[in-house]
């Protein structure tokens, strides 16, 4: 019985801190200007509570990001089409990318704060590795596509928070225009990656046959 009240207090404090951080990151023009002291004051807790609960500023941002991302992650891991694992890859890949993009659009301030935390490479972050592995697994189901690791990285690069901020915040691109552009780009990649391997082999064979048929021909003749 004596453990229940501290646990409830800790939960309330955590929720207050995450809500305060979310509000501050959304209101500030630059995520770098939000400090742990700012968040503690807005949440009505001491700085020690923040450090005990989250470790540091980066840990707090990660916790807030993961809290927001949890419903999407559940839909990807266990949900129905178009995000769930039973979805055919040609439908699931663009749906996954659209989900990432929409999350970045809905949480621009938070995504920018996370990418601006510095330290380790963003490509080593848990959430990035999760998206990459999920996307790569879907790509591996497409026949003829051999460079799934690179393709997954390249497709995810189109959803980076700094690019989204540039297109939406600076160039004033509309949300639906950006989503449509990503869908078109993804379709072109999926349609072209596998045929590229066959085309390259055909071209290479043609060059080899031509060289064998005309062994004396040199460049510049």
Written overview of the protein:
The relative contact order is 0.08. This protein has 221 residues and is mainly alpha-helical. It is 73% helix and 0% strand. The longest helix is centred in the C-terminal third of the chain and has 39 residues.
Keywords for this structure?
221 residues, mainly alpha, 10 helices, disordered C terminus
Shape: elongated
Strand content: under 5%
Provide the low-confidence segments as ranges. Answer: 196-212, 215-221
Order of helix and strand elements from N to C terminus? HHHHHHHHHH
For the sheet with most strands, the description reads: none
Oligomer: single chain
Count of separate DSSP helical elements: 10
Task: Please state the CA-atom Rg, rounded to the nearest Å.
Answer: 24 Å
What class do helices, strands and sheet pairing give? mainly alpha
The counted number of beta strands is: 0
Helix content: over 70%
What is the straight-line distance between the termini?
A: 92 Å
Query: What integer is the average pLDDT?
Result: 83
Briefly summarize what is shown.
By secondary structure, this protein is an all-alpha fold.
Helices and strands, with pairings:
Blueprint: H1 4-27, H2 36-43, H3 47-54, H4 57-78, H5 89-106, H6 108-115, H7 126-139, H8 148-157, H9 161-170, H10 175-213
Helix pairs in contact: 1-2, 1-6, 3-4, 4-6, 5-7, 5-10, 6-9, 7-8
């Amino acid at each position: 019985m004596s453990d229940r009240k501290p646990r409830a207090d800790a939960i309330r404090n955590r929720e207050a801190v995450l809500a305060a951080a979310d509000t501050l990151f959304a209101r500030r023009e630059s995520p770098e200007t939000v400090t742990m002291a700012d968040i503690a004051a807005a949440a009505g807790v001491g700085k020690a509570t923040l450090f005990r609960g989250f470790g540091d500023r980066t840990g707090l941002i990660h916790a807030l990001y993961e809290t927001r991302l949890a419903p999407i992650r559940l839909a990807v891991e266990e949900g129905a089409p178009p995000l769930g694992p039973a979805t055919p890859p040609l439908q699931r890949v663009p749906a996954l990318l659209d989900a990432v993009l929409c999350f970045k659009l809905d949480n621009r301030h938070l995504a920018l704060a996370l990418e601006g935390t510095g330290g380790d490479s963003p490509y080593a972050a848990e959430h990035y590795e999760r998206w990459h592995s999920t996307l790569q697994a879907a790509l591996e189901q497409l026949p003829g596509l051999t460079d799934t690791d690179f393709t997954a990285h390249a497709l995810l690069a189109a959803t980076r928070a700094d690019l989204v901020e540039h297109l939406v915040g600076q160039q004033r691109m509309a949300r639906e225009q950006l989503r449509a552009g990503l869908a078109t780009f993804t379709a072109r990649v999926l349609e072209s990656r596998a045929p590229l391997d066959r085309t390259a082999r055909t071209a290479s064979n043609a060059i080899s046959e031509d060289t064998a048929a005309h062994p004396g021909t040199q460049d510049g003749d």
